[in-house]
Amino acid sequence: MNTVHIHTISLGCPKNQVDTEWILGNFGRNIALVPNPSQADVVLINTCGFIEPAVSESLEVILDVIQEISTLNPKPVLVVTGCLVNRYGQSLEQELPEVDLFVDIANQPELIHKLTHKIPLKPQTAKKRLLTTASGYAYIKIAEGCNNQCRFCTIPSIRGPLHSRSMDKIIDDAKFCLDQGRKELVIIAQDVTAYGQDLRDPHALKKLLEKLALLPGLEWLRLMYLYPAGLTQDFLQFLAHLGTPFIPYFDIPFQHAHPEILSAMGRPFQHDPRKIIDRVRSFFPQAALRTTCIVGYPGETDQHFQALENFVRDVQFTHLGVFPFYPEEGVHATLLPDQIPSVIKEERRHRIMSIQAEISQNYLEQFAFQDLDVLIDQANDEWPGLYEGRVWFQAPEVDGLTYISGADVAPGQMIKATIDETKTYDLVALA
User: Fold this and answer.
1) Structural domain range at position 425
2) What CATH number is associated with residue 94?
3) Is residue 337 part of a domain?
4) Res 122 pLDDT > 70
5) Is 124 among the domain residues?
6) 252-287: pLDDT as tens digits
7) pLDDT digits (tens, 9 = 90+) for 54-75
8) Do the bridges between strand 143-144 and strand 163-164 make them parallel or antiparallel, or are there none, so unpaired?
9) Dihedral over alpha carbons 414, 277, 163, 334 (to 10 degrees)
10) In this structure, what DSSP letter does residue 255 have?
11) What pTM was estimated for this model as a whole?
12) Antiparallel, parallel or unpaired: β 77-82 and 101-103
């Protein structure tokens, strides 16, 4: 088989997408990505199993693909990997016999060799990664797993303890992505601030960021998933001196604001989160702040929720996501008393998001008619001549977009444009 036609579906977080890109890279150069399972020799589904909706989505996608390929002759080889496999491996094999190959996360590098038993495929010399993100950016995963013991989280049981990648491999990875024309690198891990703790080097993250900041071609360096406990005075001072291309975008998953709920959650930072906000803004007054919140955690009273609501109003986050607590199998919080009814969780989620919608709209209005740099990711699927990009305070996939048009606009470019219109979460710009 000269060319392997692959259809990929990568679910869940960017960390999963990076895994998918490394798997595809291991196929070598004789690979063609196809848009439909019916055109494929191999269908690869990289699943998410973090919370109940993600589990349901992963199972639904697998079943949809099974149905779509059921009448094909020959059928493509169906491969399922990722967090769902790590979490429910044996039971999946029993329930889904139509899947040809289940591969857990640890064995993803060997997936190519396992496939040689299924199709006439000669393993190629591995290359770097096959980037699948839009043209403007690439994700750089610097660590796997997590040592935090948050009582609502399945990640340590799925992905294991913290394991930092070697600095040399990360730098090589970053250079490769920049050589492909990416202008933004988004640094990801379960907790970016924990990088190097297992390497017994307290300065590992600083050394890594210093090296990344010097790479030619890098215009934006964005850090995601910064746990509150890691945003020390010393680290923020370091970032303030790092300078360009670091952008002052802080993704801090607080999860709640009341110390009693934070303590019940087993969060690594259980004090007043306003202190972290004030600390960040003392170094970066114009910082873009993103967070996520969990509502309806067991024992969350109206008073606890009111504290969260006040926190959101007071801080004025640039971006915010809200999730109801899901009682996941195998996590401590599922066994706690005083579980909150689903209808109350949804009501609380809606209240926080309504507040955030107003905050977001007011925040974006300040940029009307200003000239901003816009990084172009891709053409819009529906409107010819319209492109989707982002300004510095918009992270890929999780924040709003900047819709841009103009004569010289093209994917992968950084364009100076005038903000022509502001919406609740998005911007419209003219180049």
Assistant:
1) 371-430
2) 3.40.50.12160
3) yes
4) no
5) no
6) 999 999 999 999 999 877 778 999 999 999 999 999
7) 999 999 999 999 999 999 999 9
8) antiparallel
9) -120
10) B
11) 0.95
12) parallel
